[in-house]
Design goal:
By secondary structure, the chain is α/β, with parallel strands linked by helices. It is 32% helix and 21% strand. Bound molecules: dicarbonimidic diamide (C5J). The site of dicarbonimidic diamide (C5J) has 8 residues, from helix 6.
């Protein structure tokens, strides 16, 4: 059964069997002190507002049988997949791979790389490790989505203007219809969050739709006719 919710610039429709929820980078490294986000000088508490809406959206998506994908930004322990231009952008001592209170910063297998406990993946959900900002670049995400016949994406996570936006732009160019769930996303900079959302739905939805979690959750909770 097709579901529908109000969004900007207009209603978003989806078939739960052909829709995936993608939660971007809700990792300790971005949300907790001592991780990558804090190393870049950010106030990590700015991201905490997205946790409860993400958790509610995740619960509704699970109950509706959506494909659920959790992404994690991070690098191999030997950092061979980390471009020098990315590595050297932070000051020495606070760089990717440097030791921190949650292990080596933004390195796979370290505590900081984990998804926060409130949004922990369950068995059968896809956990997608990505070396870049976009979830399609250098990953098998497109393959996973096409193999399931997915054509619509609900996108949440952090940060709105970096990894969420990059992923939505990549997805849109690949032909996926993307609805960004506004309050389930966050930025260290509230003004960037607002601007990023406005850019997505401007010009008739130039690369996607934007809606609050309450609207998406209500549609996910509709009982099949
Ligand atoms: C950043 C992300 N901001 N997940 N990563 O570096 O948005």
């Amino acid at each position: 059964m097709l579901r529908r919710f109000e969004a900007l610039p207009g209603a978003f429709t989806f078939d739960p069997a052909r829709c995936a929820l993608i939660i971007i980078d809700m990792q300790r490294d971005f949300l907790e002190p001592g991780g990558f986000g804090a190393a870049l000088g950010n106030d990590v508490t700015q991201l905490h507002r997205a946790i409860a809406p993400c958790a509610a959206l995740l619960a509704a998506a699970r109950a509706a049988g959506l494909l659920v994908i959790h992404t994690r930004e991070g690098h191999r322990p030997d950092l061979t997949d980390c471009p020098p231009a990315k590595l050297t952008r932070s000051p020495p001592g606070l760089r990717i791979g440097d030791p921190g209170p949650m292990g080596r910063i933004l390195v796979r297998g370290e505590a900081g790389h984990d998804i926060i406990p409130e949004l922990a993946p369950t068995l059968g959900e896809v956990v997608l490790d990505k070396p870049g900002k976009g979830a399609f670049w250098a990953t098998d995400l497109e393959n996973i989505l096409r193999n399931r016949g997915t054509e619509a994406l609900l996108v949440a996570g952090v940060t709105t203007e970096v990894c969420v936006s990059t992923t939505v732009r990549e997805g849109n160019d690949r032909g996926f219809r993307c609805a960004v769930i506004s309050d389930a996303c966050a930025s260290y900079f509230p003004e960037f969050h607002a601007a990023a959302l406005a850019m997505i739905h401007a010009q008739g939805g130039i690369f996607g739709w934007v809606a609050p979690s309450a609207a998406a959750i209500a549609a996910l909770e509709e009982s099949p006719a």
